[in-house]
Amino acid sequence: MILLHLGSAWLAGILLASLLHPPPGFLWLLTPLPLAVLLLWRRERRARLFAACALALLLGALRYDAAAIPRHFDEGHIAHYNDRGWVALRGVVVGEPDVRATYVNLRVAAEELEIEGREREVRGLVLVRAPRYPEYRYGDELRVEGLLTTPPEFEDFSYRDYLARRGIHSLLRRPRIALLARGRGNPFRAALLAFKRRAQATIARILPEPQASLLTGILLGVEGGIPADLMEDFNRTGTTHIIAISGFNISIISGLLSGLSARLFGRRRATPFALAGVVLYTILVGANAAVVRAAIMGCLYIIAAHYGRQTEALTSLAAAAVLMTALNPHVLWDVGFQLSFAATLGLVLYTPSIERCFQRALAGVLSPGAAEKIVGLLDEALIVTLAAQITTLPIIVYHFRRLSLVTLLTNLLILPAQPGVMAWGGAATVAGLLWQPLGRALGWVAWLFLTYTIRAVEVTAAVPRA
C-alpha cells in the first residue's frame, strides 16, 4: 500500500501545480525538508511515510512544471510562424493517419519551412487536415502548402490546449499536398501498421457492414468506419466502452497469449512472449492513454503470475498512473485515461460490496447456493458495470453532458456476447489473413455476436429519453 500512498501524492502534486503554478525555485527550496525528515526520523514509520509522500508531491509538481505547455516559441519551431500567412512546409507523417468521415488528420513532423520567399529548417509537429483521398501513410514525406494557424479555443473547449498536450501547436486546414517520398518512418512500426491495414481489409472482405466496422473498432481500435447513426446509438446507451480498446480487450489478449505461450514454449519461457504480444497489440491499436494503462496492468499481472505472486489491483493501478504521468503529466487530462482509471478504480472498490448486497438480497428468497450462482451470472454483465458506473458517471456527465437511463440494461444484454466477439472475430481475422474462405466461415459465427450486439444497442437506444 506504500506505492498507493506515494502514487496518490505524486498525482496530487501534478494537479496542484496545474492549479497553483508555483515557481520551480520555490519547489526546489522545499525539497530538502522531506529529505531531512526521512533522515532524522527514519525509524518512525509514520514520519517516513509522511515525508516520502511530501517528497512525491513535490516531485510531481516539478515534473508538471518541466512539461508545462509553452506559449512562446523560438524561430526554430514551426509554431513561431502561426497566423503569418501562406506557407509551404516539408515534413514526414509520424503517426497513423486519423481517418474521419470526410477528412483525415495527419500528424506531420516539420523539417523545412518556406515563408515569404525564404526557406529555413524548423522542428515541431503540425496537424494537417487533409482530404480523404489520395491516401497518405505513416512515413510519407510530404510538401504541404496552406495557411498555418494556431488551433482555436472555444467557449467550453480549448482545442489549442487539447493538441498542445499531445505536442502539437500548429494546425493547417485545406492544404495542397504533394507526396515526395515513402518509407521514412521506423521500419518496424511501418510493418506493424501495414499488417493493421491488411487486417482491416480482411475484416471488410469477410463480413458485411456494419458488422465489419464494429469488429474493426473492437479489435483494432479503428472507429472511423462505424456509421454515424449506430455510433450515436452507442453514445445514447452509454456502451461506447465496448468499442474503445480498454482493459477488457487487454485482459482477453493477455490471457490468450499467456495460455498459448505456455503451451508452445513451456511455462517458464512463456512470459517474455506474452509480454511482447501485449506490447505489440498496444502499439498496433494506437497506444492511447486508456490502452497503455490497461497494458501496463496486464504486463504486471503476467509478471506476477510468472513468479507465483498475487497482484494488488490498486497498487498496479497506482503504478500505471505514476509511470504514465512521469512520461507525460498531461495524460492526467486525457478523457480516455480518466475514464479508464475511474472504471478500474470502481471495479476494485465497489464490486465486492455490490456482490455482497446482491447475495444478501437474493438469500432472502433463494438458497445460499442458488443466490451465489445467480450473482456469478450477473457479475460481468451487471455488477461490474454498476461498479464502473459509480466512478465514471461524474466524468461522463462533466465532459459529455450526457446521462443514459438505459446503460445498465444495455450492458446487461451485450456484455456476455463480447468475449464471443473478441474470440471469434479475432479467429476469423487471422484465418482470413491466411485463407479467405476459412475466414468467411468463422466470420459467420462472429457475425452472430456482432449482430446481436448491434440490435440490442439499437433497440434500447430507441427507448424514449434513453
**What's the overall average pLDDT, rounded?**
88
Q: Gap between N and C termini, in Å?
A: 41 Å
Major β-sheet profile: 5 strands, mixed, barrel
Q: What is the strand tally?
A: 7
Structural class designation: alpha+beta
Percent range for β-strand residues: 5-15%
Shape label: globular
Work out the helicity level. 55-70%
What's the arrangement of strands in the largest beta sheet? 1-3-5-7-6
Which value, in Å, is the CA radius of gyration?
A: 25 Å
Counted by DSSP, the helix tally is 17
Q: Which regions contain 5 or more consecutive residues with pLDDT less than 50?
A: none
How would you portray this structure in words?
Helix content is 61%, strand content 12%. The longest helix is centred in the C-terminal third of the chain and has 33 residues, at 368-400. It has three domains: 2-66; 78-186, OB fold (Dihydrolipoamide Acetyltransferase, E2P) (Beta Barrel), CATH 2.40.50; 211-461, no CATH class. A five-stranded mixed beta barrel has the order 1-3-5-7-6. The protein is built from 17 helices and seven strands. It is an alpha+beta fold and 466 residues long. β3 (103-115) and β4 form a beta hairpin. The protein starts with a helix and ends in a 5-residue tail after the last helix. It has helices spanning 2-20, 24-30, 32-40, 45-66, 159-164, 187-206, 211-220, 228-236, 247-265, 267-284, 289-306, 313-327, 335-363, 368-400, 407-414, 418-434, 436-461; strands spanning 86-93, 98-99, 103-115, 118-121, 125-131, 141-149, 168-181.
